[in-house]
Design brief:
The structure holds two protein chains of two kinds. Chain A is mostly helical. Chain A has helices at residues 6-24, 37-56, 58-63, 96-117, 121-136, 145-161, 165-185, 206-230, 234-250, 256-272, 276-291, 299-304, 306-341, 350-373, 380-390, 401-421, 428-448, 452-472, 479-508, 515-537, 552-571, 577-600, 609-636. The chains are: A mainly alpha, B alpha/beta. Chain A: This is KIF-binding protein.
């Protein structure tokens, strides 16, 4: 600083502080019709600083220029993203010339950000590129590494905004590699850019320096996550989201509830990809970190104060949201295991089960290895709590009833938790969604149950939880949900009917069923048909007219429902020939509908291929059966 | 024409209205004499974009000289009639600030004298609704009766304010198994005539102005939702049929303020340096989860208040019209394009209207 008196330097520092203050604080109060007033003022100050630096230090710069006359610019400017190791060209970063370049670069950086903020993108880009040029002459050092990263972050944002995602990616990936390179080679707490313009006594502590530097890099991760998302590289994007979260946690820069919700959401990404170990890890971390947000204020406290009330609401809601993510974890794990184990008629394939159990031992070792290589969350304080929570539920597919039941119980426990907040009165949609998940958990568990009587009881539980709601819901406001419920109820009843029949056949071993069983069977059969019919009625016009054209999203369910109604009617057991005749006629009518609809709407045929084929067959066969029955009735009369 | 001819489709209908050029209004669009669009038929509009002009098709396109009455007839008449028959109906007004939303919906200014020829869709809807009510009551020989209540709320920054009770704190959305989604604690005013309904509306509208200046919230950034609940009772042979329906009139925030929510594509969400938080990480992750759909997953981030409140009108079971207002000036090209694109996306949302008929008091 030889050529600059301390007074002059102090003046520059004051200007800088002033500019920062204008940009960050005062600009927020700028009037609507003059939105950038403070930023324009800040820009003027930055320009003055630039001029002062340029003129005062020019002699010094020439001395250290290493014989190069004028502008010591490297012949080729390295372009970011091409991954040539551009470190260490020109003068070393901590030389006086290097420092001067960094200072000028920093002013260019701030000018660039200022122009971008005031919507002058090209001017902003120019300043940021000037900063890059100045830095291009220096090697990376603890004095300038922060600037190296910041300017690239800004250029990444700038180019992404112009839809040039690859260009943005280049800058951000270079920032990433500069960070890693620096941490490997040096790693000392680097100078923060603001320190270029502070007087000695105001320099930052090492701790503060580290914090700011790490934050800049966390931002790089965060922007890269978005860039990869925009490029459609979801897996990579997920990894960077994960790293961002992990860094926030390690560096203690996070809001617990916000963090927990993000981790819980990330778990949903993993489970949709079938990566249950990662999913479970995110969820355990979410639960543990959400605990850091503190106790839920009591109801009494909430009534006393508005802020406590809001806090209570927030904490309860967000924890219930996390519980719902856990429910999905358990549900998907069970459903995926079911898919893995079922044979071609949807029953447990015991050969496959044995095979998988034998392979299990290897898998457990694999899990251990995978766990070591996977990204893990946790700071020292939380790591153990997260790990112990993970142990409460497995991430491997359950292979038998005992294992499935363990997963089910965890899921059911979270159902209870989630329902505590999302009560029917106040959160109808959420509450029903949770019940639907609960029902689905039962359904998946029932698959593993070998005792058919108990399996039937599980389905009965599903009916008990859904049926009253389906009846009570206002059809005007909850049309879609009601349709889902009707369909599910219809299928559940049908499943129960099949189970009853299998059981009865096993016991009786003949076709002669006792009247009690027949009554039961017919009841289940009609209940199923009733709900399918209710679903079909919900598609009709207010005057009760069946739509000529089925909307795409209900096309398949509507045709399937018709087909099922047809089958159910033909299965009803009756000793009265006239009732039999009625049933067969209704059955035929519905089969005919499927066939005729597909004839007039050929595009529908592909969506219900199997059902259509069977319907055609039945439309051919049923009339014969009906005629035989009629003949028998006539003969008896 | 083919779309319109397919008739009774329940998808959301879109009406585009082009306002006249502005003069001496103090708007930035003043004195802009060159146009960026032309209306080429009653349902097409051509935007003079480069290199090729683009044509957009809607259910109806109204040119600058279309009368207020004509707008009402094509947009609201049918919806008001449906409300009488037990359907829910919603009319949205969308567009850039200064594109004529208020003029279309209310009229030149908040005149209490609503016989003015320039009065907008809302006063005309009130008149028509009460005309129909009175006719229906007369026809039925008093066996039918109607009950009409209004509420008026504003959504600003994801907070709900009651425009009929400015003293109240922000309100919450709740759901009830019978009532659907509603704003808990919102004031409901009973009205018996179009004049009374209009009074409630103007009072709320004035409050909105006052609130926006005194409480530092901009009305161009807020959505205002005026809801009229209509209940009809009919007794035939000791059986009472009750029908409920809702008419929602929504003034959406100026489209230019909504850049954050939909027009941005590749823009990165920036970290706010002030609170050092990476606010939008959740949204990034959410987008990843959404891509891999088909599986059962839960998303922790909730719908916006507006879409939740009007869920029924967007893909639920209601009759919905969107009026997209555009300014023809070439300076507004960007905004006009995004408004037209929004309106086109809205057309893709399917609606299914269903009547609600509760039967009470069956013969004992």
């Amino acid at each position: 600083m030889a050529s600059l008196s301390s007074d002059e330097w102090r003046a520059i520092c004051d200007k800088f502080t002033n500019a920062q203050n204008l940009t960050e604080v005062e600009s927020r109060n700028d009037p609507e019709n003059d939105p950038f007033r403070s930023k324009y003022k800040a820009r003027e100050l930055l320009r003055e600083i630039y001029c002062s630096l340029k003129s005062f230090e020019v002699s010094e710069g020439e001395e250290d220029g290493g014989g190069e006359s004028g502008d010591p610019r490297p012949s080729e400017q390295p372009v970011d993203g091409q991954r040539e190791d551009g470190f260490g060209q020109g003068f070393s970063g901590d030389s006086p010339a290097g420092l001067r370049a960094a200072k000028l670069g920093a002013v260019e950086y701030y000018l660039g950000v200022n122009h971008v903020d005031t919507e002058e993108l090209s001017a902003g880009q120019e300043h940021l590129m000037n900063c890059m040029k100045l830095l291009g002459r220096c090697s990376v050092s603890s004095e300038n590494v922060s600037l190296f990263i910041h300017v690239r972050n800004q250029l990444g944002i700038l180019w992404a905004g112009r839809d040039e995602t690859e260009t943005a990616q280049g800058f951000l990936e270079t920032a990433e590699s500069i960070y890693q390179h620096y941490m490997k080679e040096d790693g000392s707490p680097p100078t923060d850019m603001t320190e270029y313009f502070t007087t000695e006594e105001k320099l930052l502590t090492h701790q503060e320096r580290t914090k700011r530097f790490e934050l800049a890099y966390t931002h790089t991760m965060y922007y890269l996550a978005q860039v990869y998302k925009n490029l459609g590289q979801t897996e990579r994007a997920a990894t960077y989201c994960h790293s961002t979260l992990q860094r926030q946690l390690q560096l203690n820069q996070f809001n617990p509830m916000e963090w927990a919700l993000n981790a819980a959401t990330l778990s949903q990404y993993y489970i949709t990809k079938g990566r249950y170990m990662e999913g479970r890890h995110c969820l355990s971390a979410a639960t543990v970190i959400s605990g850091l947000a503190g106790e839920v204020p009591s109801e009494a406290a909430a009534q006393e104060s508005e802020t406590e009330n809001e806090r209570r609401e927030q904490l309860r809601q967000k924890r219930a949201e996390i519980a719902r993510c856990w429910i999905k974890y358990c549900l998907n794990l069970l459903q995926d295991a079911k898919k893995l184990l079922e044979d071609n008629i949807g029953e447990l394939d015991t050969d496959r089960q044995d095979e998988l159990k034998r392979a299990r031992r290897g898998e457990e070792e694999e899990e251990e290895k995978g766990r070591k290589s996977a990204l893990l969350f946790g700071s020292e304080d939380t790591f153990d709590s997260i790990a112990s929570l993970e142990e409460k539920v497995r991430c491997l597919f359950p292979l038998d009833f005992t294992e499935a039941r363990a997963v089910f119980l965890v899921g059911q426990n979270y159902v209870t938790q989630a329902k505590e907040y999302f009560q029917m009165d106040g959160y109808v949609t959420d509450h029903i969604e949770i019940l639907q998940d609960h029902s689905a958990l039962f359904r998946a568990l029932a698959f593993f149950e070998e005792d058919l009587e108990r399996r039937c009881k599980m389905h009965k539980r599903r009916v008990d939880m859904l049926e009253p709601i389906c009846t009570d819901l206002n059809a005007q406001y909850y049309l879609m949900i009601r349709r889902q419920l009707m369909f599910e109820l219809a299928e559940t009843y049908s499943e129960m009917m099949d189970l009853k029949l299998t059981l009865a056949n096993r016991q009786a071993d003949t076709q002669s069923l006792d009247s009690h069983t027949i009554k039961k069977f017919n009841h289940l059969c009609s209940a199923s048909a009733k709900y399918f019919q209710m679903f079909l009625d919900s598609l009709c016009s207010p005057e009760g007219k069946v739509p000529e054209h089925l909307e795409e999203e209900v096309l398949r369910p509507a045709l399937v429902a018709r087909f099922r109604v047809a089958r159910l009617h033909s299965r009803l057991i009756s000793s009265s020939p006239s009732v039999q005749l009625d049933n067969l006629n209704r059955s035929l009518e519905n089969y005919k509908y499927v066939v005729q609809y597909c004839e007039t709407h050929p595009e529908a045929a592909t969506t219900v291929e199997t059902e259509l084929e069977l319907s055609k067959e039945m439309v051919g066969l049923l009339p014969l059966k009906i005629n035989r029955l009629k003949a028998r009735m006539a003969a008896n009369n | 024409t083919q779309l319109a001819a397919s008739g009774d489709s329940d998808s959301i209908k879109v009406f585009v209205r082009v306002r006249p050029l502005t003069q001496g209004t103090g708007l930035t669009t003043d004195g802009d004499q060159s146009l960026c669009l032309t209306v080429t038929s009653p349902n097409t509009i051509r935007l003079l974009s480069k290199p090729e002009p683009r044509t957009f098709t809607y259910d109806h396109v109204a040119d600058m000289d279309t009368s207020q009455d004509a707008v009402f007839s094509s947009v609201a008449k049918n919806i008001v009639e449906s409300c009488m028959n037990g359907y829910n109906g919603t009319i949205f007004a969308y567009g850039q600030t200064g594109s004529g939303k208020t003029f279309t919906m209310l009229g030149p200014s908040e005149l209490d004298n609503f016989t003015d020829e320039l009065r907008g869709v809302i006063p005309r809807s009130f008149e028509y609704l009460f005309f129909l009510i009175n006719r229906e009551v007369e026809r039925s020989g008093q066996s039918k009766s109607f009950l009409c209540k209004c509420s008026f709320i504003e959504i600003y920054n994801e907070q709900i304010y009651d425009l009929l009770d400015t003293a109240s704190a922000s309100l919450f959305l709740r759901e009830n198994i019978k009532k659907g989604v509603f704003v808990e604690g919102a004031v409901e005013k009973f009205v018996n005539s179009a004049a009374e309904a209009y009074q409630v509306l103007s009072m709320g509208w004035r409050n909105r102005r006052v609130a926006s200046t005194s409480m530092n919230r901009e009305s161009s950034r807020s959505h205002a939702v005026f809801t009229m609940t209509l209940e009809s009772k009919e007794s035939i042979n000791e059986v009472v049929n009750i029908r409920m329906s809702q008419l929602n009139l929504v003034d959406l925030a100026g489209s230019e303020r909504q850049k954050d929510t939909h027009t941005e594509g590749s823009r990165l969400k920036e970290a706010s340096s002030i609170n050092r938080s990476l606010m939008c990480l959740g949204q990034v992750i959410m987008a990843l989860v959404d891509v891999s759909n088909g599986k059962n997953r839960h998303i922790c981030y909730r719908d916006s208040k507006l879409t939740f409140l009007l869920r029924d009108s967007l893909g639920g079971n209601a009759k919905t019209y969107i009026i997209a207002n555009v300014h023809p000036g070439s300076k507004c090209f960007g905004e006009t394009l995004s408004t037209l694109q929004f309106a086109q996306r809205a057309k893709l949302i399917k609606n299914k209207a269903v009547i609600n008929e509760d039967t009470q008091g069956n013969v004992r």
